[in-house]
């Protein structure tokens, strides 16, 4: 049984047999998998009253450990969005009462974002559902295949420059 990318590669082979299109297969599959996974995540979070980006920020604060507070810059770097995007997102989370924003008493030029009790509850309410959803999404792979895929994707991401402290991805 083939996938959508197999059809695309067959078409290229027919039209351009001289083209070594195998990399298109890998990149195309990674892109399609990303879109399909994101669609499923978006639907799952919506059932819990959250958007994907909201969970990303709230989860980043939650996993930072007590006191569940990060500077806006650290939050931006950890949640993989640009500093411009984080400001708007923080504004929206503050309006929903899920986080607070305060000037850092230790550095008046810095802003500190803190998870509120409502934000904590929102993360905790969806977290186990989120993990279960991801388990179902990956259930077509056995445990060894999942570990191997994770290893290969990590190697690819590092090769593409995705390392801690690197540039944020929107």
From TrEMBL:
Pfam families: MarR_2. GO terms for biological process: response to stress. Keywords: DNA-binding, Transcription, Transcription regulation. SMART domains: HTH_MARR. Gene3D superfamilies: Winged helix-like DNA-binding domain superfamily/Winged helix DNA-binding domain. GO terms for molecular function: DNA binding; DNA-binding transcription factor activity. Residues 23-158 form the HTH marR-type domain. InterPro entries: HTH_MarR-typ, MarR/SlyA-like, Tscrpt_reg_MarR-type_CS, WH-like_DNA-bd_sf, WH_DNA-bd_sf. This is MarR family transcriptional regulator. It comes from Actinokineospora fastidiosa. The lineage of its organism: Bacteria, Bacillati, Actinomycetota, Actinomycetes, Pseudonocardiales.
């Amino acid at each position: 049984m083939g996938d959508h990318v197999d059809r695309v590669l067959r078409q290229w082979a027919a039209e351009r047999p001289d083209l070594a299109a195998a990399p298109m297969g890998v990149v195309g599959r990674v892109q399609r998998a990303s879109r399909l996974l994101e669609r499923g995540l978006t639907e799952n979070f919506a059932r819990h009253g959250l958007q994907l980006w909201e969970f990303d920020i709230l989860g980043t604060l939650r996993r930072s450990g007590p006191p569940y507070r990060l500077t806006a810059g650290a939050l931006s770097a950890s949640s993989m969005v640009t500093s411009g995007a984080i400001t708007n997102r923080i504004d929206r989370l503050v309006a929903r009462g899920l986080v607070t924003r305060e000037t850092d008493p230790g550095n008046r030029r810095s802003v500190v974002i803190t998870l509120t009790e409502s934000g904590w509850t929102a993360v905790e309410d969806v977290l186990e559902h989120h993990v279960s959803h991801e388990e179902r999404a990956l259930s077509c792979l056995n445990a060894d295949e999942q570990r191997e895929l994770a290893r290969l994707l990590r190697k690819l991401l590092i090769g593409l420059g995705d390392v801690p402290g690197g540039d944020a991805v929107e």
